[in-house]
From TrEMBL:
It is an enzyme of class 1 (oxidoreductase). Residues 138-239 form the FAD-binding FR-type domain. In the C-terminal section; belongs to the flavoprotein pyridine nucleotide cytochrome reductase family. Residues 1-133 form the Globin domain. It catalyses: 2 nitric oxide + NADH + 2 O2 = 2 nitrate + NAD(+) + H(+); 2 nitric oxide + NADPH + 2 O2 = 2 nitrate + NADP(+) + H(+). It comes from Couchioplanes caeruleus subsp. caeruleus. This is nitric oxide dioxygenase. PROSITE patterns: FAD_FR, GLOBIN. The keyword Iron-sulfur applies. Keywords: 2Fe-2S, Heme, Iron, Iron-sulfur, Metal-binding, NAD, NADP, Oxygen transport, Transport.
Length: 370
């Protein structure tokens, strides 16, 4: 796939600076040619456009890693079942995608790029379809909110009970929709717990600005409301075979999947030292610190370091959590798990690279509440 990967990356570089316009043009072509497909998508398309671009970039980046490429696309196919996507829709999407890129690349676009994207998209579609067809689960699960707690002005911790069993692995994420307030508008969140016998899932959400979904989940969601959950995705999971000590780095509500992994470790770990670095802007944003400290007091293999980047009187570490991690160590022989906003994850990965932590030992999950 070497030549194909080269052509895809080369052609994508021609339109990358116009990617928002590419996404807008792409959806416009779909809805103009097939108006009936508009009802499959949310009213507000801003995040949906960003997700399209994210999926394209991820697919291109993983093309030369067959196992990761296959896992990602099969998971994407399972996830898209929530939109009621049918096999015939894939052809429409492929044509619109190539047309959008061709339009913004202009004269630099060549027939070889057309063929490369047609070939790549055929593989992408086949793997997504295979993932969707192999999934025997429902396209989504209804779940009832059984607890909802505000943590400060803009953070909520709430628990839901799916009406049917929902299997997932600690560290994964899934899409959530709140039909009462924002129908057809899905956002991804990570459960903050490992799978439990009672089938409940806990979520940590921060309301960001005028975020359509996050604001509703924090400020309007109530006990008794129903949400919908889509198929779990992601590979930020623990390897039980690993004997290396572990470092968890969390920024803000990126703590959720870290807590999920910690809960799993409490069930079997006896030999691995685990270090948690939890960072936020100020002490009020360290919304679940009491629970982390409770876990650290109970399990001698667990240590917790906290940091604030914009709270000079905070008694813990000062600065961005990505920098704080670098003050400790050495970390070359540890497994790393990183979760937080895009900039936080990027900064942490940069620090770990400077510390010469092998990338194969780093798993990460970045998010954007909206």
């Amino acid at each position: 796939m070497g030549d194909l990967a080269r052509l895809l990356k080369e052609s994508w570089s021609l339109v990358e600076e116009h990617q928002d316009k590419v996404a807008g043009y792409f959806y416009a072509r779909i809805f103009l040619s097939h108006p009936d497909l508009r009802d499959l998508f949310p009213v507000h398309m801003d995040v949906q456009r960003a997700r399209l671009l994210g999926a394209i970039v991820t697919a291109v980046q993983t093309l030369e890693d067959p196992e990761r490429f296959d896992d990602y696309l099969r998971g994407l196919g399972r996830d898209h079942r929530k939109f009621h996507v049918e096999p015939e829709h894939y052809e429409v999407v492929g044509g619109a995608l190539i047309e959008a890129m061709r339009h913004f690349a202009g004269e630099q676009w060549g027939i070889e790029y057309d063929q490369a994207w047609a070939d790549a998209y055929a593989v992408i579609a086949s793997k997504m379809l295979a993932g969707a067809e192999a999934d025997t689960n429902p396209p989504y699960w209804y779940a009832e909110v059984i607890a909802h707690e505000r943590r400060g002005n803009d953070i909520a911790v709430f628990t839901v009970m799916p009406l049917q069993p929902l299997e997932f692995r600690a560290g994964q994420y899934l899409s959530l929709e709140c039909p009462r307030f924002q129908p057809r508008l899905w956002r991804t969140y990570s459960p903050a717990n490992a799978p439990r016998r009672d089938n409940t899932l806990e979520f940590h959400v921060r309301a960001i600005g005028a975020g359509w979904v996050s604001s509703a989940l924090v400020r309007r969601l109530e006990v008794g409301d129903m949400v919908r959950l889509a198929a779990p995705m992601g590979s930020m999971n623990l390897d039980r075979r690993s004997t290396r000590d572990a470092v968890f780095v969390a920024g803000g509500t990126g703590l959720a999947p870290i807590k999920s992994l910690l809960e799993e470790l409490t069930r079997y770990n006896r030999t691995r030292w685990v270090h948690v670095f939890f960072g936020a802007r100020n002490r009020d944003d360290l919304y679940d610190l009491a629970e982390l400290n409770r876990l650290a007091a109970r399990y001698p293999w667990l240590s917790v370091v906290t940091a604030c980047s914009d709270d000079p009187t905070f008694p813990g570490e000062q600065g961005n959590i990505s920098d704080v991690v670098g003050r400790y160590g050495p970390w070359k022989e540890h497994d790393f798990f990183v979760s937080g906003s895009g900039p936080m994850v990027k900064a942490t990965l940069k620090t770990l690279a400077e510390l010469q932590v092998p990338s194969i030992r780093i798993k990460y999950d970045s998010f954007s509440d909206a």
